[in-house]
UniProtKB/TrEMBL annotation:
One Pfam family this sequence matches: HTH_20
Name this polypeptide is given: Transcriptional regulator
InterPro entries: ArsR-like_HTH (IPR011991), HTH_ArsR_DNA-bd_dom (IPR001845), WH-like_DNA-bd_sf (IPR036388), WH_DNA-bd_sf (IPR036390)
A molecular-function term among this protein's GO annotations: DNA-binding transcription factor activity
Boundaries of every HTH arsR-type domain copy: 15-99
Recorded superkingdom: Bacteria
Amino acid sequence: MRDVMHLEQLEQAEALFKPQRIEVLRRLAEPHTCGEVAEQLGQTPQRVYYHVKRLVEARLVTQVDERKVRGVHEGIYQATARSYWLSPRLVGRIGGLRRTQDELSLGYLLDLMEEVQTDIAALDRTAPELPSIGVSGEIRVPPDRRREFFQDLRSTLQDLFERYGGSEGDAFKLAVACYPKGDQDHD
């Protein structure tokens, strides 16, 4: 089972539109038969099988085993991933135009986060070592020093890009997001 599955196909997203199906998917975090899930949810095995079949078609659930019970073959199913990320590309953005030219726009930040989400979902989590770092913090910048702060940040990052931007060694993606906190007072 993967940690994260990045959903980029509409059919996969549509498979999750039914609340009952999401509940079935949750129950399949561990391998279960449709009968076992039906018992947990107080539903008929046929109803659960209908949802499981749709989830299998969308590649959100896989059959991991099979057992024979009273002459009938019964599938054992498990969710493909522990969590699922829905690509913003499936929904799109109101207004349509991507604002990748304006690094200070929230549209650019959304594009950047989508790119990071896609890159992370594509990583091979079975690799013995995934060298990575995540840093998060909060800083406070007076309104009259915002321009100076953004210039310092850009200069620091540009220095890193120049010092480590050669063609040899392992390639790493560096993405920095700076955005206003939602709970602050706006001037």
